[in-house]
Write a structure and sequence with these properties.
Strand content of chain A: 15-25%
Number of strands of chain A: 9
Largest sheet of chain A: 6 strands, mixed
CATH architecture of the largest domain in chain A: 2-Layer Sandwich
CATH class of the largest domain in chain A: Alpha Beta
Radius of gyration of chain B: 25 Å
Helix content of chain B: 25-40%
Structural class of chain B: alpha+beta
Number of domains of chain A: 3
Number of helices of chain B: 10
CATH topology of the largest domain in chain B: Rossmann fold
Oligomer: heterodimer
CATH superfamily of the largest domain in chain A: Reverse transcriptase/Diguanylate cyclase domain
Distance between the termini of chain A: 27 Å
Number of strands of chain B: 20
Bound molecules: adenosine-5'-diphosphate, magnesium ion
Strand content of chain B: 25-35%
Chain lengths: 285, 369
């Protein structure tokens, strides 16, 4: 473990290492040497809370002068451009060599996206791109490609969340607040670039079900081994197309059929049934 | 000169369950200039290993040694590695020249050196006339070559390629396959190439690493893994169409599936089965489609290896046909001469060349030899 992280854990034994900011309402989250650490506010006295809030760089809202940032975070703020619809891209660049490199990363990235009206950093690695929504939608796969391309040139590892189109009115700051949480949730997913569709299931489960006894028990029931999880994920991704799934899994159709039946016998869930399949897919998230 | 040692590598992702290793005990020595292909079904851990070599993922346990140096903790940038990804993306707003130059500019190469490297790569790839075009003005194949060019200009002694052809249509895939092989012959860069396509592995590799569920199943030349698969997984995965499998009982030099398949095992093979204690045991018999014959002449050579099967489908490929048929409960496929045409429902005598058969232990699934 990185030295600063372990020092922090020594000082605050109730702190925990996490992949992404966790439970931002009740916890404080810190990025220490590229590692997220979380601690419940209830475990801290006022004095510590105050001191720790000073090192919480990602949340340093008030020192960022950008007008779009103000609009995204303050309800009463006027939009720099009125009457337009925008999409907010949030990103975090890990492993950049320097601030200049991060800046350069952003400069190139915004040239690959149409109709960017503003882009800025809100922390050493984290930033925002504002796109005016035009007729053409940005394609998630395209953005993923661009991020992968840039990361290969800069040797960085970047996470990005593409927001939905919103009109820049008074609801924007509340909505953006939720999109921030989606972004944080998305950081632990396998793909680096996400949007609402790719993050929502994980987000809801994390929020509502992770602590549920019922969910935990069901999870244990369907989480048999890697081959089974792989089968469920593949079936889900292939829209239950057996031919496609058996090809991807490299098993004969009959074998897949047999495994589905065996799974039904042991768990009571029938993977050929859409609802059962979706439930098992969720349980394994 | 570059050699790579992967010593007992394990990978567990932070967010995965306690016992879930994406890669377990991966052990491989890669020789200088070698073209190694990792092949296996989706989710078996191929990309994970590649990303650990590139430094994009941490190694949970084990050692990565490049040219005798311990590299587990070296930053990606410090590793002398060029990576080509699945999607072959290019910067849409830059010319071909600038697309290739970009990575070098970031690394502060001077202009003349950049120019020299790009001219060289363009010559190797036949892109000299396209350097001032933008990606949108190129054909799919040309774009792929520019993406390769971006790797070539890095002048790195190691190339990592993650399913670089999987998004291409079949025709382009075949021509790019040849192009990459040619490139390797010319540049002699040590290359690790990841694919889920066994045909790519067979045609391109010096050596193949067959993987399944995070574990190495077999390492060998294409010929070795094809002719001497170590277990049933490798036997079934390598080769197209796949090897046929028959559940049989072996007894006194004969195999029998209890449903009409009864064949004599050649002496050399039955000797091994006897010695290994399989007399009276259930085993799996594997036979490749090309080792099943429909010509009458074969029947005369091996009268005790002939079965009477029902034809299900016959697919005409050209000079050969794929004959799907059934004996007892078992479906199997044979590659036969198209002159021996058979309709569905026909009854046909097929001769199994059991000298070429593979036998697998029913519980370990390992080959018996
Ligand atoms: N970032 C990640 N986080 C968690 N699990 C992952 C991540 N990347 C891959 N995996 C899991 O690790 C296993 C191997 O994946 P991968 O190396 O991508 O396989 P392949 O390239 O052979 O298709 C899979 O079960 C996959 O779901
Ligand atoms: Mg992969």
């Amino acid at each position: 473990m990185e030295e600063n992280v372990s020092k922090f854990l020594d000082l605050y034994p109730s702190a925990e290492i996490v992949n992404a900011p966790f439970n931002v309402d009740e916890n404080m989250n810190f990025l220490i040497s590229n590692q997220w650490v979380t601690i419940a506010k209830s475990k801290l006295n006022e004095h510590d809370k105050f001191l720790l809030s000073l090192i919480n760089k990602e949340e340093s809202k008030n020192t960022i002068k950008n007008l779009w940032w103000k609009k995204l975070t303050e309800e009463k703020q006027e939009a720099p451009q009125k009457g337009i619809t925008i999409k907010v891209f949030q990103f975090r660049i890990d492993k950049a060599q320097s601030k200049e490199q991060s800046q350069q990363w952003l400069n190139v990235f915004k040239d690959t996206i149409d109709n960017v009206i503003d882009s800025f950093f809100i922390g050493p690695n984290a930033g925002i791109v504002i796109q005016e929504k035009n007729k053409a939608n940005v394609d998630l796969a395209y953005v993923q490609q661009m991020v992968e391309l840039l990361d290969s040139d800069f040797y960085t590892n970047t996470h990005m969340y593409i927001g939905e189109p919103w009109s820049a009115d008074k609801d924007l700051s509340d909505i953006f607040n939720e999109e921030r949480e989606f972004f944080y949730s998305s950081i632990r997913l396998k793909n680096n670039v996400n949007d609402l569709s790719t993050v929502i299931l994980d987000y809801l489960i994390d929020r509502n079900l992770r602590k549920s006894k019922l969910f935990k028990n069901l999870h244990r029931r369907v989480n048999i081994d890697m081959a089974t999880s792989n089968m469920i994920n593949t079936l889900y991704e292939c829209d239950s197309n057996m031919a496609k799934a058996s090809k991807l899994l490299f098993v004969h159709r009959n074998t897949l059929q047999y495994r589905i039946e065996k799974f039904y016998e042991t768990t009571g869930f029938d993977l050929k049934n859409h609802e059962d399949l979706a439930l098992c897919f969720l349980l394994l998230k | 000169m570059v050699e790579i040692d992967l010593n007992h590598i394990y990978k567990k992702y932070d967010n995965s369950k306690e016992s879930d290793y994406a890669v377990s005990d991966f052990d491989l020595h890669i020789k200088d200039k070698e073209f190694i292909v990792f092949v296996g079904p989706s989710g078996c851990g191929k990309s994970t290993i590649l990303r650990m070599i590139a430094g994009l993922e941490d190694i949970t346990k084990g050692e990565l040694i490049i040219d005798g140096k311990y590299e587990n903790d070296t930053a990606p940038k410090e590793r002398d590695i060029a990576m080509v990804f699945q999607n072959y993306a290019l910067y849409p707003h830059m010319t071909v020249y600038d697309n290739m130059a970009f990575g070098l500019k970031l690394r502060k190469y001077d202009k003349t050196e950049i120019d020299k490297k790009i001219k060289y790569a363009a010559e190797v790839l036949g892109l000299e006339d396209y350097l001032q075009r933008r990606p949108a003005e190129l054909s799919g194949g040309q774009r792929q070559r520019v993406a390769l060019g971006r790797a070539i200009v890095r002048d790195a002694p190691i190339f990592l390629m993650d399913e670089p052809l999987s998004n291409l249509d079949a025709k382009l895939r075949v021509s790019m396959r040849a192009e990459i092989a040619k490139l390797h012959q010319r540049l002699n860069t040590t290359t690790i190439y990841v694919t889920h396509d066994q045909t790519e592995a067979m045609t391109m590799a010096d050596r193949i690493v067959v993987m399944s569920m995070g574990e190495v199943q077999q390492i060998g030349t294409p010929k070795e893994v094809y002719l001497h698969p170590k277990n049933k997984f490798v036997a079934g995965f390598m080769g197209s169409p796949s090897m046929n499998f028959f559940d049989v009982t072996y007894r006194d030099g004969m195999i029998n599936d209890g449903k009409g398949l009864s064949l004599k095992v050649p002496e050399g093979r039955s000797k091994v089965l006897n010695e290994r204690g399989y007399n009276g045991q259930k085993v799996t018999m594997g036979l490749r489609p090309e080792d099943i014959h429909a010509e009458g002449a074969m029947e005369e050579v091996w009268p005790n290896s002939t079965v009477n099967a029902d034809v299900i489908v016959s697919e005409l490929l050209g000079s050969t046909s794929m004959l799907y048929s059934k004996v007892g409960d078992t479906e199997f496929v044979a590659i036969v001469d198209s002159r021996d045409y058979h309709k569905p429902g026909d009854n046909v005598n097929l001769t199994f060349d059991l000298n070429k058969a593979h036998f697998f232990d029913d519980s370990s699934l390992d080959a018996i030899y």
